[in-house]
User: What shape does this take?
Amino acid sequence: MDLTDRRLLFQPNSVERLIGLRAESWDRSQLRGTQLVQGRRRIATWRRRMGVVLVGGGVVEFVVWEPEAAVRELAARLAAGTTPC
Assistant: This one.
């Protein structure tokens, strides 16, 4: 996942491609914020999810290593309108 000055981009890794995930992107104007997503499964990776809240009310979920930190970082970057160095 990468945030530019125009878009949020998702590029699946090789394992994700094997299960059918494809590259996606969302215009920054479509993004409303971030949130933690509570896992409903016992598999550890399913618990490590962050959600990107879209303006229309939908939530796009991502499995990340440290969801709390990822939510804070992306929310701050969205609010500031900044991109990574």
The radius of gyration is 13 Å. The mean pLDDT is 85. The CA atoms of residues 48 and 65 lie 6 Å apart.
